[in-house]
Specification:
The chain has helices spanning 8-18, 29-32, 35-43, 49-57, 63-73, 90-99, 103-109, 115-125. With 133 residues, it is mostly helical. The protein folds into 2 domains: 8-73, no CATH class; 90-125, no CATH class.
Amino acid sequence: MSKPKSRLFQFVDAVSHTKDASFLDDPTWEKEYVPFVVNRAFSYHADSLLAANVMNERPHLQKNLAVYFYLNTLRPRKRYSSWHKNSVSDDARVVAEYYGCSLRHAASLVSLHSSDQLMTMRTRIYKGGMSSR
């Protein structure tokens, strides 16, 4: 049994590119519409950033009002972008495991250690087994 595909990004495409509001006729569209994700998708583009900020400031609005706002505010354009993902260095992972702290805190601690200290930490936390060292 396969999971049905989410229509979430179809909302973004319908509102920003095709300007097609026919999905509003479907009575189940509000269950699949997540305002936070739609606002995040629009916040990656310079021409729709302010509109996304306005919608973030008004989370109490009904979902159909947010859709009409985007339909009438944004100019038709394809808006596709990759989503920002946090990247953590290997050094930060080593420091986090060595001290038993979070990755965020470990990232701030990496600059306080020399490369020799980081190598010592790596050898102390090495658990054996096959690796690509």
